[in-house]
Batch of 2 targets.
Target 1
Amino acid sequence: MMRTRARTFSRPMMITLGLAVASVVAAGCSSSSNSTQASGTSPAGQTVPTAHLPVLQKIGKGEGQLNLIAWAGYLNPLWVKPFQQQTGCQVNAKYANTSDEMVSLMKNGGGGQYDMVSSSGDADLRILYAGDARPVNINLIPSWKQFFPAFQSPPFNTIDGVHYGVSLQWGPNVLMYNKKDFPAAPPSWSVIYDPKYKGKVTVPDNPIQIADAALYLQKHKPSLGITDPYELTQPQFQAAVTLLASQRPLIEKYWALASQEIFDFKNGNAIVGAGWPYQVSTLRADKFPIGDAIPSEGATGWADTWMLAAKAPHINCAYMWMKYISTPKVQAEQAINYGETPDNKLACGYMNQMQAGSCALYHANAPLAYFHAIKLWKTPIATCDNGKPDCVPYAQWVSAWNTQVK
Amino acid sequence: MAVTEAAAPAKPATQDGVWSRVSAALWRRPWARATLLLTPPLAWFLLIYLAALVVLLITAFWQINPFTTNIERVWSLTNFQTIFSSPAYRQIILRTVVIAAAVTVTDAVVAFPFAYYMARVASPRTRTALFVAILLPLWASYLAKVYSWLLIFTHGGLLDWSLGKIGLSQVHLIYTNWAVYTVFCYLWLPFMIIPVYAALERIPSSQIEASQDLGARTWRTTRLVLLPLALPGIVAGSIFTFSLTLGDYITPLLVGGTSATFIGNIIYTNIGIANNVPFAAAMACIPIAIMAVYLLAARALGAFEAV
């Protein structure tokens, strides 16, 4: 039974609708957008928009608050509480799960919402060239002089001699395995591509995972000629994506949150996979038989920086945090609790005091060879290191991950 | 004894004049009264809600700089072309719509007998108790409910344990689309029961008696009298279940596996992670278009009519 109704608009409706249309049009026309950038994607030739901003000359009185974007496990009360007591700066944590999230948060909260971000190498350049970070006066951070030379002014947080943050710690993406199913550590990453473990493998839900596949192919398919897992030509990139697509039926779940991977290992949903030392430490603390290894192909990794936001509202507290987190004792605490390698040379002694043998376990005094075996995250860009524009930029990594792999 | 006195204190003449003039003017122009009343909520709705949506959706026609992810105001339809020409995205859209439809049908089938019992059979006390039972989960946080299902479905979790107790083998439901479907059915069931209850409650029992007097038995009465009268309520409830499933991304993220990417997940990863707001906006236009069609169909079926 169709009911028809005479659709007449009464006068008040007409007036308010008229106001409505006018306001919507006005809003649409005056929408603010970020500054437009030239479409050239090469950083060579681009400048950091905030390079000219003045740096703080002296750390003043704390503002009482500090808003930090951090990886899970980086703001453990063990070292945050003493900081809050010493400086009076209350730390407000915002946890992010991927580098992409950090770039996005800094962009959208860079308008004075967050003070610092513990970004990894693959996020740093994107944050810098978008103008979301500001220069740091490295002389206000005395512990910086105790850092390993490789981390004092690394290319991911220092451009043309200007520092935009202070290096924090670094670590590998390890192969995690359940000791009950693997009595001995698997010697190769091939175990996560093995159909024998169908339904029991887990890897991060992160487009940068393509680099792990490329690292694997660097050793197992030398004919492809991969030299840097973050600089892939189209055929190399396609080979890595194909490998990951073939891995998909083996994957139970691509973990998006560190807590998901911990849950899956604990409940037997996964027995082998790629993860961070944070998950390993947490599972170990719960007495779970978890093992971790860096197989023969090497591993990808990350080097983190506490980067200063361009419009940081609590700049004195931010500098106090940078000073605090760089000191050897705090570096040792974080290294042991998370399972990563500190950038401060003097942390080693403190680490062995807190936990015997931890300095060697977390490679805090490792030779340069270890450093070179870990391929640190960096943003894939179109220009390869040899200057040719053949390489696949990150935006394609994201779309390939979403459409071809997952 | 008459004690009441007209206790009207003498008002200053000017105050009396202004207010009474305004009052009289409004009295004579009913449209002005209505406009005055409607403008604040409508302004809020339009400026804060619609305008914000328009600003976001306009970016669907723009692009981003791939390196810095800043938005470039270059008008083009590239984002829409990417979505419709890629089989992966088409599959994601299809999967979202199919699961949303499945959840809607399941919830309608489950809710109908429940609502019928509540509306027409239960005593007032039972009805109150049932209402509490339905509405109480809505007070629990969304995440708490989804995580509980995670614990039920997980390898060696509550479901496996129960099946083991009655001698059946374990089922593997976690991180599958079945888990996503089940959790959605559970989450939106209250939103389906309430409108169906409201529709069933309004049906006069005289209609059912008349149908029975004319010789129709239970199933025929249900099919020819009850269902058509309750249909507006079912359609109203289905708007909730369909649209909520269409836009959700948290349940597929937590409970879904490798093939549980929904439209919402693509939007989430593009806004929050890849910072490709234009692409996310283009993707967001799709559920809006689907819901517009759905709402028009719902209106034609009488969901918005007050009986």
Note: Residues 87-121 of chain B form the longest helix (35 residues).
Target 2
Amino acid sequence: MSIDQKTVRRIARLARIRVEESDLPRLEGELNSILRWIEMLNEVDTTDVEPMTSVVKMSIKMRDDVVREGQDPTAVTVNAPRVEDDFYVVPKVIE
Amino acid sequence: MSELTDFTISEARTALREKQFSALELTEAYLAAMERARILNAYVVETPEHARAMAKESDRRIAEGKPRALEGIPLGIKDLFSTKGVHTQACSHILHQFKPTYESTVSANLFDNGAVMLGKLNMDEFAMGSSNETSYYGKVINPWRRKGSNAALVPGGSSGGSAAAVAAHICAGATATDTGGSIRQPAAFTGTVGIKPTYGRCSRWGIVAFASSLDQAGPIARDVRDAAILLKSMASHDAKDTTSVDLPVPDYEAALTGDIRGLRVGIPKEYRMEGMPQDIDALWHKGAKWLRSQGAEIVDVSLPHTKYALPAYYIVAPAEASSNLARYDGVRYGLREKGDDVISMYENTRAKGFGREVQRRIMIGTYVLSAGYYDAYYVKAQKIRTLIKRDFDRAWEKVDVILTPATPSAAFAPGEITDPVQMYLNDIFTVTVNMAGLPGIAVPAGLDSGGLPLALQLIGKPFDESTLFRAAHVIEAAAKFKARPDRWW
């Protein structure tokens, strides 16, 4: 499977990365060379093989449903580029 | 001993307790050495105030006769580890000015044991790279050079700063992380020892995530004993990481007995790659011979799916990365670029904040997880992963450890490898270990014809790091690897 520039544009949109039109040919080439190399996996018969879900056998850990540390909005927002009254500030989302 | 920075961790531990010098004197010696070595670009941030304060506390504890396991030992911390109030950016522009309000469990464990933080170490951006050329803070220079040459070499990656700093003696040891080879490959390129423990041995809490099912923390150190000392302190069960295991941490240093009689060592025939440099093949044979001469039994094993590990990795790791890195949106931390609306703000921020390699991997990951391709790529790769693990499970019926080369070449020059797939091939011997969640150690075992370090890798059973340390210690003793880079900086 190889991808065209239209697909590169679609992937970039899904990934939320702005890509200049002039960069599309380069990305198309790079991504296709990686995808072509990955095609090697089609040689392997994986019928009846279970996909890996965990490399180490472990069961899900449970913990008591109790209040722990938290309630510190300043610590949470201190690294944000724009904050007002402990809220993140973003461009207007709803018109 | 000529200089304080030449003491290994185990030597410094004794000397500090015997009060041959103070922790502050040791730290000052490292801070001065770091300043002289800035041309290597191993540190992205030096933290002398932190270091001095921690060293003074260590001296107080030593005076009280209550030293902790790593009392006064100066360490470098890879920039992937969250350090409270201190620059933590995974060497990416997108985490511009990020200073966590918390400490990673691994670094907290080290500092609780008395270690001193010298600064944050350079790395490939988000740990994506094999040459430390993708860092937003510029490339790291390997302290090693080819015999008779002044040309710069890469230190490997992604823990290139950690490996270069340990090799240049500008820290006593360093933290590192390994998703596909990022501890072992740079250790091999710099003549240092690096161990990636079993998945779950160290807590991943507070480590900037790359590929969560593959990432593990481990140390890079000057010798096997120092690596054993560091891993003992780094490893712990942590309620904050549900994938960390609730198993006691053994005294790894106690495993260094030198006795490997009866140890069964597997040699996997699939690791004999076409076009492998003669020096590496010869070293691999030598390694087997050393182990045999100490009473180990050499056994041929087969790991038939070896060659599929790397392409499968380049589905799984980018898929997990695209998901993990979705959080960098310009809202909660780091860089924000303006946009006309919220989506263009995301897109502009991520275009400016992520470097080319990171963007490439996010896009590959996004593609293989997108509607219609998930089964063909992601599920297929996870099935291959099951087969890779099965290969190892079968091998463990016959052997206790597996011996392989650590890398397909010695260190190369910056800019020498520009094709992404060629760069990925650096991890061909290390990546199987991450895919199967196993422990692996790289130990320096000789020099190539150009005078550059080469390493062997030992792969172990899950949670059997002790046996890896024991066997690596025997290789280290047999190889008598004492070479150090000439100090040209």
Note: Chain B touches chain A through 70 residues (CB under 8 Å).
